[in-house]
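Input (structure):
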């Protein structure tokens, strides 16, 4: 029984450490992307166009929470929204101003 408890604690600790490492790596990648792309400007979630905020409430994004948002000033400007879920996974979705998903 003691071995089982110790194994369970070790497994839990490993899973937690892995989740933390993934979050740290994702954050570092985002910071590098910002430094490499001066046309990518961080904005408040409230500054997203209403169509994008509405799209984020649809079933396709159920279980995901918007973490941060960026406007990318390109030939055709678009918005990037970083989403996280309960497993600490990171997903970046690109939207047109009208709320249409460009890339999931």
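Output (sequence):
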């Amino acid at each position: 029984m003691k071995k089982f408890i110790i194994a369970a604690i070790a497994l839990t600790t490993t899973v937690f450490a892995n989740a933390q490492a993934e979050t740290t790596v994702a954050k570092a990648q985002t910071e590098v992307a910002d430094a490499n792309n001066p046309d990518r400007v961080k904005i408040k979630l409230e500054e997203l166009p209403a169509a994008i905020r509405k799209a984020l409430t649809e079933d396709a994004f159920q279980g995901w929470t918007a973490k941060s948002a960026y406007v990318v000033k390109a030939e055709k400007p678009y918005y990037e929204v970083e989403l996280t879920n309960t497993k600490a996974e990171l997903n970046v979705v690109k939207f047109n101003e009208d709320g249409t998903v460009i890339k999931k």
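Notes: The mean pLDDT is 81. Helices lie at 2-36, 50-55.
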